[in-house]
Amino acid sequence: MFAHLSKLDISDKTHWVEFPEIHPDARVQILAAGESNPAYFSAALRKYGQQKAKAKTRQLSVADFDEARESERDLFGRFVVISWESLPAKEGGMVPFSRENAMDLCAHLPDWLFDRLRHRANEPSNFLDIGEDPLPDAAELAKNSESGSATI
To answer: Which one of 29, 31, 99, 121 counts the least CB within 10 Å of its CB?
Structure first.
């Protein structure tokens, strides 16, 4: 009955995030930042477990928020960013993708651009690839009649 829901699996799906502020064609390819990305998820659980223990001993502050963002920068560089196109180097030319360069990019993106990347990676619907074969209409699945009442 629900086999069609397997299309909603986002494991190994990617999403492109555009950065026209950096270059007209700049975009970064990412994996989801969640359970569907086991390497990210395991590392995040370790980091956030440590931060949660600290939070119990005092009130959270802006510095705590900044520290969390910096932790995310590290995790995104290591486990979320997987490719890019058209990211210019300071000296000219384009920067080739590598894990080290991904970590450097995440470390140096302005907060508001990093937050765009973070927001996109944390939204599972960005990774859905339903394509030409969309999920069936809800009324069709429920086998509703044209009058809107369910047929039994």
So the answer is: 99
Distances (CA, A) of 137 to 29, 124, 133, 140, 143: 31, 21, 12, 5, 10
Least confident of 49-58, 61-70, 111-120: 49-58
Task: Find, among 99, 82, 79, the residue nearest to 39 by Cα.
Answer: 79
Would you say the C-alpha torsion 104, 109, 110, 111 has a positive or negative sign? negative
**Domain presence at residue 133:** no
pLDDT digits (tens, 9 = 90+) for 70-99: 889 999 999 999 999 999 999 999 999 999
Number of domains into which the chain is organized: 1
Rounded Cα gap, residues 87 and 38, in angstroms:
27
Rounded Cα gap, residues 122 and 12, in angstroms? 14
